[in-house]
Amino acid sequence: MSAVLDTPAPPGPGPAETFGQTLARLGGAQKGALGAPAYSRFVNRRMGRFLAAAAYHAGLTPNAVTGISAAFSATGIALLALVAPSWPLGVAVAACLVVGYALDSADGQLARLRGGGSPAGEWLDHMVDAAKASSLHLAVAIGLYRFGDLDARAWLLVPLAYCVVDGVLYFGTMLNDALRAQHGVPIRSQQRGERAGVLRSLLVLPTDYGLLCCVFVLLGAPALFLSVYTLLLVAMTAFLALASVKWFREMGRLPR
C-alpha cells in the first residue's frame, strides 16, 4: 500500500516530454523493494507506473488518483456484498480490486514524479487503505451470509478473523514506520542500500493484498474460493505472529 503525497507542482508534464520519457523518470522515482511481497513488487508497481504516467499527462493530482482508486475498490467491495457469487462476478470484483490497487500505487508514484507532496495527501491515502482493508473482509462475510450455502455458520468467522488480522498487520506496519521515523531510523521503503531478495518476496506472497484481489476470480466456485481464502488467512496469521516478535525486538533496540 503506497503513501500518496499530494503536491502543488504544475499539473502536467513539460511540453517536450513524451510518455516514454515520463516512464523513464518514474523508473528512478521508485520506493525501495525491501520487504515488498512479489505481486506488489513485480506486478502492481509496474501497473502503477503506467497509470501514474497516464495521470501525469492527463494533469491529475495524486489526490485525484487516490479518489479514483477508492471508487474502483469500493465498487468491487459493494459487488461482493450485494450480488450472488458467479464467475462473471468474480472477474468483475477481481478487476475492480486489481485496478484500485494499481491506482493506489500510482498515486504515490505520481507524487514522487511531481517532486514531493503534503502530509494531507499521505493521510488521505492511508485512510482509504484502512477503510478498504477492513470493509473488504466484512463484505465477504455479508456475501457469505446472504448467498452462501454453508454447512456450518462457523465459516462466517473466517472473514471476521481476516478483518482483525489484516487490521492489526496494517496498524503494526504503520506504527513501526512511525516509531522508526521518530527515532531517525530509515523505514523499509527508504532502505535502498540493501538488496531486496526475490526469495523473500515470494515467501511473503500470501500476505500480499494484490494476491488476495486475484483470488476473487474464484467466486464462481464458492467452496474453492473459501478454501483458498482460509489458507491465506492462516498464512497471514502465522506471518503476523512471527513478525510481531521481530518487530517488538526491533522497537526495543530503538534509542530511548
From TrEMBL:
It is an enzyme of class 2 (transferase). Its EC number is 2.7.8.11. Keywords: Membrane, Transferase, Transmembrane, Transmembrane helix. One of its GO terms (cellular component) is membrane. Gene3D superfamilies: 1.20.120.1760. It comes from the Bacteria. The chain crosses the membrane at residues 50-72, 78-103, 154-176, 197-219, 225-248. One of its GO terms (molecular function) is CDP-diacylglycerol-inositol 3-phosphatidyltransferase activity. Pfam families: CDP-OH_P_transf. InterPro entries: CDP-OH_P_trans (IPR000462), CDP-OH_PTrfase_TM_dom (IPR043130), CDP_ALCOHOL_P_TRANSF_CS (IPR048254). The keyword Transferase applies. One of its GO terms (biological process) is phospholipid biosynthetic process. Belongs to the CDP-alcohol phosphatidyltransferase class-I family. This is Phosphatidylglycerophosphate synthase.
